[in-house]
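Researcher: Let's continue the batch. This sequence belongs to dihydrofolate reductase, and it's 179 residues. Same format as the previous ones, please.
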Amino acid sequence: MARVLNAIVAVCPDRGIGNKGNLPWHPIRLSKEFAHFRKMTATPSVKGKQNVVIMGKKTWYSIPEKNRPLSNRVNIVLSRKCKVPPAGAHYLASDFSSALRLIETELADQADQVWVIGGSSLYKEMMGSTGMRRLFVTQILKQFQCDTFLPEISLDKYRLLPDSNTPWYTHNKVSRCTT
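Model: Same format as before. Here are the structure tokens for dihydrofolate reductase:
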């Protein structure tokens, strides 16, 4: 059975997700959003397993050094140039497909949920891939200066599902049979 992939992101009204290598609202700390991110990405649904976070190299370096690796999660960093994982990262993969193969092989027994946490090109690749995909999108109501953006969410591929706390989108390109 194919694994459900999750992405989590906070966006400004213009879908901005970053500015100069940081979150757009940096140095302001959005405590509730950080708590939500941690709860979602660090809480496995299966006892004895850990969630996996996949991120690009720029996202890895945008995390304050004291917070790397993200605790209680397996951290996979993507880079085509690095030959060894950045200091503190658990694994290095050359691309998204390689990270998914790593999860299904070497990490299969310990991995629970898989979370894509940035950046923009990784979100785009995940959103365009086949299989069940869920996007957990927190809308920040204030506009900040941004130079990095979440790709547009195609409503012919995703549908908005009700949630009392955070809007989230799900995508399923797998055909369903009904009886």
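Researcher: Any comment?
Model: The beta strands are 5-11, 16-18, 50-56, 73-78, 91-93, 111-116, 132-139, 148-149, 158-161, 168-172.
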